[in-house]
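Troubleshooting entry. The earlier prediction with KG4 gave an output that would not parse, so I re-checked the input for stray whitespace and re-submitted. Clean input:
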Amino acid sequence: MNILGIESSCDETSASVVKDGKKIISNIVFSQNDLHGAYRGIVPEIASRAHVEKINEALSSALEQADYDAIAVTVGPGLIGSLLVGKMAAQALAWVSGKPLIGINHLEAHLFANLLEHPGLQPPFMGMVVSGGHTDLVLVKDFGVYEVVGRTRDDAAGECFDKAANLLGLGYPGGPQIDKLAAKGNPKAVQFPRPFLHGSWDFSFSGLKTAVLYYLKDLKTQKNVPDICASFQAAATEVLSVKAVKAAKKFGMKSVSVGGGVAANSELRKRLLEEGKKNGIKVYLPSKSLCTDNAAMVAALGYHKFKKIGPSKVRLQTNPSLPILNWA
Ligand code: KG4
Ligand code: ZN
């Protein structure tokens, strides 16, 4: 069964066809990084206009090599103007083709992106979403059966990378820039705080960002950007990797599935694998292009959702602050 996935929740316009929830036939992603770079953050109005301009091209390219049996589209969370572009395109296609529609939660799609490359991964597992807007630890009991065990109390992991990068005068999005510069720096140069919040599975990253701000304010000498990047990255990734693996153990899971843009971070990937190995937990990471926003992960989850509960209502509801909800 071929699912056409559509993703436009934030600043990537993407369409993809995935066979049987695992084989990518096409995955077209148009990034808007160049458009938002000058503003050092996403401008919602620019994002939605760019989606309108690119959605048809994304769809026609994705459908060049394949037909589809159903349409899965992200309905939240995200920017409302951006979400509406994908939703309207999906509904229009459903009307003309008569094919069923499946509404997908973007965060759930990140949790299942690993299905595209690791078909052996099956629930139950401990999931972690680390993206620009979210940091969630989710016990995935089955498709559609979740328990959110921890979340960020303030900034999301990606937001913290982006804000730290901004303080250092690096471009947007900051995560990939910090990752690149950190490779040339000393992670022990600056001792930034590790916000573990012992006794809770929640995260808190705003203090780490503030620590970078004060470090820069108090600095009497020329700043060493690679050292600061490496030290910041060491602090952020230590907390994420240790807590994800610890949570898996605590909840009796044998594996951790990680997704979201920050999962592309080289240090986080390394630390998660090391931490997993030390504790006998298998860590699944999507390849970097499937960590950041893409429609293939939407199509993959769409397949499993359709098989389990069938199509969604013809008129989908978008919700910019959609939480992770049980649907099965
Ligand atoms: O999942 P995503 O593409 O979009 C959202 O759903 O938010 O995540 C985007 C976030 C941004 O904050 C970006 O800076 C971060 O992922 N990111 C990274 C890396 N690549 C993307 N953060 C750290 N290291 C990276 N290599
Ligand atoms: Zn995302």
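This one parsed fine. The two ends are 21 Å apart (CA to CA).
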